[in-house]
């Protein structure tokens, strides 16, 4: 996030696009709702009628995957009306001419046709956003989990830059990070193209720094991204994989392809706390610790590094994750893995990661965490980014063209499936909390009343959902949260592994999967035995229990 | 004739042309008489009254805007808009010293001044028409009989403080008043006397009705605002005055019906005229609903400073059937009882407060020797307990406990120390309650304990009810004079009276529920209560 | 500048805050049950009454803003007597089961009764009775213990912005309930449990903490392991049994304050789940079988070295985790880059 979570409360306009904030980031969602109660205006761009959408001053239920057209249309109106921040554009950005040229084609009527949003609503959204100084953009995976994810993000930046909304309090562009430490994992260089602190892998200076620091020559070539790893495994080019705390078989798109990949490996190590779907394919399983059993740090969306503290001992002989890897490294004869404790590791993080350099465990304890960049021990941390100047001087605007989603509905697959999270669960771990699971024990695919009628479905019915890649069985919930012709499902349930339906179509830059748009068909199915309805064993696939 | 919006000149013309028409109409009525050149209601009951708020009541047709105009209606609004500044209105109101007629008596002019000083585009005028005191119907009568006087008063207030929107919060149980107000608003808007650009000026003022569902506490200004905002009617903490932050957080004036009905007269005739009526402490008149043990009950509007004696005996004609007055209760559940020996007390805000009662909104109940003062206290307290919103501890829990103690007294189950307990609990409730409802809830108890302590003592110590009213403390007994007519036995709902025809009847005391039917029907008055 | 005096202690304020907050600044604790800094002022319990010199009326400190020159007394004999009476009224209509109530030790009503010496209720009379609602997995709602402070109503309306609760009924019979008196369920309630942590009495109890005395639990402050918001809270640890039994909020959490969602507050039973992996395993004869750390790590080291030797460093890849700590991620990337010799490390950065 360019800004901090609590700046939401001071915003005059909140522009939420592709984020079901009250379910996926409930506390940030609460703050948005609190702001609305106090008079902050709210625009929600989401095909679903989410809780926030119901509270919004303006809800734009666009066609899935038409975000780029919508944003271009808004910029078009802003330029036509002369609402752009002329001085800001001149002083702090480059590439404005390209934007002007591209958005010229996105006239309101064209955009309305693509997005399904009326010209009046487009105009109102553009006016509100452009004319409110304290206007923040908030987005999550509804923007990124498309084949056009990267361009969507760039386009939101264009919108914010054209109107001069970046570099100020209560404004900015704010991706709400999906997982507790996805920010930190990126910061730490758990990426194939960057070292810790986003130092490029294919940059001589950083190669030299890390070669010197680790005392080994660094590989000068970017590594493989997850989908490439899976493809390479299927192709026999990758032979071994070390998986720490992820379950790609359940959570990556096109699960059947991922299964094929992990089965093809010569050697799979899974370091986990539960027997995940991926662990079932492992050659070696290493029992690790959960967050309550370890000391360390997580980095939140607002770039705040915060302490995690050990509360209980791990079960059995399970060990700390970093400790297991250190022991493995030592077994392989490597030096530099003799850390005493988590703080010792953090000291090395500080030494290699400039934006963390000013943080110490002591400061993190005393100051309730610190927001990077925090380059020195006297630096207070950074509440919001890009004040006054961008890294590298000016922000470059790159025009983005609208491209439709990779998969469209047709006669055979008439329904558009969108996936995401629900409030009561978080990915796969919460399923192991009996309490949380008892609130939401099974998948309930959302389906519009019109479609329910069309397919002859009642609220207690089971359906089979089939895409070109696979098929799953689920219970349903009939609701106007989704539009006719659309369905929504979550990926929390092994009983209904929705990622067997999603497609391995990827954004070309980040290789993020297209989780948000898959074409599916549905049909009503019956339990093999009526009694099963109340007696399904947890984690047992529903498709094996129907006629 | 299609009615169109009129200008100032057209209003003047209309007024002058309607006057002779109305006069001709009124001249034919036998119930009216001319006093100081104006038609007023005739008869003894009205002679001693001075009617300002009720000046048109039962004289004009409430559904006729023309008749209201003929009686100088909307002349004050016209004067205000065209001849006076908002500050001028407020000065006039302050000079008139019109104190709030809802009961608390806060000077309306000062309230308006605070709201006028607030720099805010949106301000509200609210008319509190949530009249809820048992037996009180002053506001209802004004709204039913002269709705335009309220609208005109509100519009003048709106002009003075800079508000364009008024709300009348009225009980849904007053369907006729609602109908009259709706009609009056529609007609005034049609004629351009309300709505946008009143009489062609820059001033716009709209009035909407909001119907309450009969919660007594919604008569409390902030609970009323919560209710208008669509929330549960519970009083707000008074961090800010409502004239600074009221309805939806905007500066808001709340006055009651009678207060607004006085406003046009004050603006029309001036503060000097108004202060010439009433007392130094309280200018003008007050409307009372005179009820209870009195010959002539009804609406009474008298100058402030009139004594209770004058109201009860001169206007009300005294008590019927040779009964003697024991007390009057003023101010409803928030008010107190005034004993007969204090009936020469002048009615004004200060004098009533001095003797432990309040002006209240205008309920005045006359009681005689058959009324048990403990039971009267119980009655009003029971009302408060039912109507407490439950928000604050002393009102929710305290009034209930006090009621339970009073009930024990009326049942003869209390001890003397309970009386001390009641006094200390009354202090807790009145000192710590959030709103006026709780703060005044114990007034009926405290004032009756003060003036009629002997009655309390009789209940507690002697286990007797001197008024022979409290059922648990009385017995019915058939004297030897019984003629054996069997009427009592037939009327007894629990069949506890036995006896042969023409023989002496006997009441089974264990089964008797003390309904009093036997006593009432006995043709020879041989059933006594002790 | 506003200069005031509270119980003889002078205080200068920059803006007019309420007297209850102002008193905190000079370490004067004014008792209260319905006030919370993060909620709108309710002024229902009336316990925070104070006397202000020059004013006839006793006023509640939560609803009076400090004004220059105010001289405030918070603990006079008169105020103490009134508070005692108010507490007496409260417990007179409150179940007398404190001996077995799970709220003991964290019950604010009990604390105040102790402080003010209110031993037994002295008012005799009716008691309100409501049906207990415990048909949900997170809490027990016992409205007999409710003192109508309205904190749950306000936290649900103003902080969670869901509006599950409101007052119903009038006066002595009034209560706090859901629309149409429905039992708490996921259709009307987000199950965030914020009402539970606001409740000053045992009216709303966290089911997870039932059976645990608060003084027996150790609190360990940590950061939530779910979404990327970064909420902080206290894990409540039953040390004797090495078990996290529940979560309570910590007020100085920089991002969330005392706010928590259903997952943050109610997830902890997964930590001690029977399904946790407790021992290393090696696949032998097609089956995963328990092994010692020595076996598992030596075997892994050997296989990694073999594959690296045979197919090159880039034939080995790693998936790191957005759920693990920075330290875990750092060490794994270092391992891949410095020991294996590849940059093929990734995690689901975009999910």
Write the layout of secondary structure elements.
The complex is a heterotrimer of chains A (about 550), B (about 525) and C (about 350).
Chain A: E1 13-17, H1 21-24, H2 26-37, E2 41-45, H3 51-55, E3 58-60, H4 67-81, H5 86-92, E4 93-94, H6 96-103, H7 108-115, H8 119-131, E5 135-139, H9 141-144, H10 149-162, E6 173-175, H11 182-187, E7 194-195, E8 199-200, H12 204-214, H13 226-234, E9 240-244, H14 248-251, H15 255-264, E10 267-272, E11 284-287, E12 296-299, E13 304-308, H16 321-331, H17 342-352, H18 361-366, E14 370-371, E15 395-396, E16 415-420, H19 434-439, E17 444-447, H20 449-454, E18 462-466, E19 471-478, E20 486-490, E21 503-506, E22 513-514, E23 518-525
Parallel strand pairs in A: 1-2, 1-5, 2-3, 4-15, 5-6, 9-10, 10-11, 16-20, 17-19
Antiparallel strand pairs in A: 7-8, 12-13, 13-14, 16-23, 17-20, 18-19, 18-23, 21-22
Helix pairs in contact in A: 4-7, 4-8, 4-10, 13-15
Chain B: H1 8-27, E1 32-35, E2 38-41, H2 44-47, H3 65-70, H4 75-83, H5 86-96, H6 108-117, E3 124-129, H7 138-145, H8 147-161, E4 165-171, H9 175-190, E5 206-212, H10 221-228, E6 252-256, H11 257-269, H12 271-275, E7 285-292, E8 298-303, H13 308-315, E9 325-330, E10 337-339, H14 349-354, E11 363-368, H15 373-387, H16 393-410, H17 416-432, H18 436-439, H19 443-451, H20 453-460, E12 476-478, H21 487-491, E13 497-498, E14 506-507, H22 517-521, E15 527-529
Parallel strand pairs in B: 3-4, 3-6, 4-5, 7-11
Antiparallel strand pairs in B: 1-2, 7-8, 9-10, 9-11, 12-15, 13-14
Helix pairs in contact in B: 4-8, 4-11, 5-6, 5-8, 7-8, 7-9, 8-11, 15-16, 15-19, 16-17, 19-20
Chain C: E1 2-6, E2 9-13, H1 19-25, E3 49-52, E4 59-60, E5 71-73, H2 77-92, H3 108-115, E6 139-141, H4 151-159, E7 165-168, E8 175-178, H5 194-198, E9 204-206, E10 218-223, E11 232-238, E12 243-249, H6 262-266, E13 281-284, E14 287-290, H7 293-311, E15 316-319, H8 326-340, E16 345-346
Parallel strand pairs in C: 1-5, 15-16
Antiparallel strand pairs in C: 1-2, 3-4, 3-5, 6-9, 7-8, 10-11, 11-12, 13-14
Major sheet description of chain A? 6 strands, mixed, barrel
CATH architecture level-2 label of the largest domain in chain A:
3-Layer(aba) Sandwich
The CATH architecture category of the largest domain in chain B equals: 3-Layer(aba) Sandwich
| Mean of all residue-level pLDDT scores of chain B | 92
User: What would you report as the Rg of chain A, rounded to the nearest angstrom?
Assistant: 24 Å
What is the total domain count of chain B? 4
Helix content of chain B: 40-55%
Could you give the count of β-strands of chain B? 15
Report the β-strand fraction of chain B as a percent range: 5-15%
Count of the domains of chain A: 3
